[in-house]
Hints:
By secondary structure, the chain is α/β, with parallel strands linked by helices. It has helices at residues 28-45, 66-77, 99-107, 122-128, 134-147, 165-177, 195-201, 209-225, 244-250, 277-285, 299-310, 324-332, 347-350, 353-360, and strands at residues 2-9, 11-12, 24-25, 49-58, 87-92, 112-118, 152-158, 182-187, 229-232, 235-237, 256-258, 263-266, 269-273, 291-296, 317-318, 336-339, 342-345.
Amino acid sequence: xxxxxxxxxxxxxxxxxxxxxxxxxxxxxxxxxxxxxxxxxxxxxxxxxxxxxxxxxxxxxxxxxxxxxxxxxxxxxxxxxxxxxxxxxxxxxxxxxxxxxxxxxxxxxxxxxxxxxxxxxxxxxxxxxxxxxxxxxxxxxxxxxxxxxxxxxxxxxxxxxxxxxxxxxxxxxxxxxxxxxxxxxxxxxxxxxxxxxxxxxxxxxxxxxxxxxxxxxxxxxxxxxxxxxxxxxxxxxxxxxxxxxxxxxxxxxxxxxxxxxxxxxxxxxxxxxxxxxxxxxxxxxxxxxxxxxxxxxxxxxxxxxxxxxxxxxxxxxxxxxxxxxxxxxxxxxxxxxxxxxxxxxxxxxxxxxxxxxxxxx
Length: 361
């Protein structure tokens, strides 16, 4: 039984210059056909699907109107068994939050909101190409709490061009003052097919490893003091507020993905939907194959992925999955430790997590 469902909504009020997820500017002429296609795909995926977690990501899911969101969610509820749902997350841009929309989402079963604040600094928000202001983000957070959203995540980004250490500390502390249930703190990366990547190639901007490592250590320290446990390298939660959906990914659970560019991993197979909204919609409405990538997940691939993901979490990796000589060397160098048959990265090791994972797999 598949217990995790992801729905990708590609529309955005504005395409941010750093975002590498498949997205496109909102277009009301495409929307209804797209929603019909997602519901058609849900029918194909419904057998053996009883989600414990649901996650609407994007893009900006709440770029859809309130009536469109209601149409989509009620349509999914009529096609997929929602009786086991414990966590239903939707991503929201602060510019798309309203009392009405939040109230309708709550009434439809959404019980967790992930809001992309990214920064509270107005100049840094302009650098990121965000359509909201810090004041608007604070107001949107207040709206979510006023209507009764009990589980809220706030996303932050560090390593933004021009960002100072003082600005990052202020961003963290301002976030903590709001008492969200969960905080995600991601280092800016320069991904292909983004404006920032093109500017990086031209030498106009780029990562600064020492600065970014310092910002990461600052996040770990500030959020730990504030009572947030780092249960994954980029994710911090108050007790009992870990994201169950993401934990499913990191623990290697099967999941179903709906929408353009969405992945599904079911019964040893991984499939990706075509990353083109118009083509995705056409294929679904004509009952044609919507995949542009299919692979069999063999044992070696599954093992490598479990090591890479588990290494990033507080759960760690079972020692028997690791090459003993390499694990021992990492422990000796202070990058890892072990306890009760599991292998964990130290704070120093977390700074080098991707490189360590590459070595171990």
